Amino acid sequence: MAKGKSKPTPAPAGREVIEISSDDEGQPSVRPPLVPQQNASNIASLRKEVQRLKTDRDQYLQEAETLQYQLELNKQKIRSLEIQSGLDTDKIALSDSDLDDIISCNVCSNTMFVPYILPGCGHTFCQKCLTDWFDTTFRNFINAHPRYDANNPVVDQLLAYLQDPRVLQNPRMLEGIRQFIPAQPTPKYECPECRAPVTSKPIENFAMKSLSRMVASVKKETIPSTPQRPRAGGPWDGYFPSKH
Asked: Annotated region Disordered: where (predicted)?
């Protein structure tokens, strides 16, 4: 007698039946770790943050320089108005010698047709005398520090970050930046008259320039032509490099 198909053995009572199916629908898939992608994303975010801080820092420096320029210019306008207030149609309050003292450079004693004011102390000198003065300081510094690199942008960038209010409020970031600043000496420029430190570019004194030309015109003196500005940069970039 032929044997029939064997019947499936029933599962013992009380045991849970686990059905194995080839269908993976509904089962959580196992994904490879995303560590490399996460690192790349973090690096990209940090780069964006550094670029944003750099842009903000450049904006703050530009605004500070503009405000400083406006402040010094307004001071000179006030001084010029005070001088003019002592004049009327019939009487000159200032003698020629007093007026010459005002418009003359304290270094070369010539009329300041191209005057520049030092932002720190407020003293004004002609451009040539300041250039010669800074040149002497720079040459003496180079002789004492022959390995000085004036084109190293790292120090300027880190020092600029230290002026960012958000960095100043973050002690860990502040300390980290300070540790990366190399101990590199820099030239110490001073005012030729009072020896006050000069840490930023001199500003052209338009009020004094106008007064000097007005006096020269009244006296029928020859007014020299204004020196041409270089196409890139200014007369003080070699002493006070711009921040990038």
From this structure: 1-41, 220-244
